[in-house]
Design brief:
about 120 residues; mainly beta; four-stranded antiparallel beta sheet; 11 strands; globular
């Protein structure tokens, strides 16, 4: 069993920054590949970024490439999503995710970007 708890969402003006955190418990964090997804109102959940468990290799959705950075701190069992140059279209609930036989999701954190 894996527990994921996101934090760091909020309201920010376009062009601003936010840093999301996801605290992980219940499984050795260093062996987990971690992802961020988001879901805007009326839309399906979409991939944002991933960071591999061993190499730390990262991948991003084209819509956030160059603006968002995913990172991890294995000592603190936490994955981060630094979001810069935010746009109104980034408004969504952001979810932390990992897969260990099953899919595990956090409860989500709301990010609202005003124009």
């Amino acid at each position: 069993q894996v527990q994921l708890v996101e934090s760091g969402g909020g309201l920010v003006q376009a062009g601003g920054s936010l840093r999301l955190s996801c605290a992980v418990s219940g499984r050795t964090f260093s062996i987990l590949t971690m992802d961020w997804f988001r879901q805007a109102p009326g839309k399906e959940r979409e991939f944002v970024a991933t960071i591999w468990r061993s190499s730390g290799t990262t991948y991003y959705a084209d819509s956030v490439k160059g603006r968002f950075t995913i990172s991890r701190d294995n000592a603190k069992n936490t994955v981060f999503l630094q979001m810069n140059s935010l746009k109104p279209e980034d408004t969504a609930v952001y979810y932390c995710h990992t897969r260990v036989a099953n899919d595990y999701w956090g409860q989500g954190t709301q990010v609202t970007v005003s124009s």
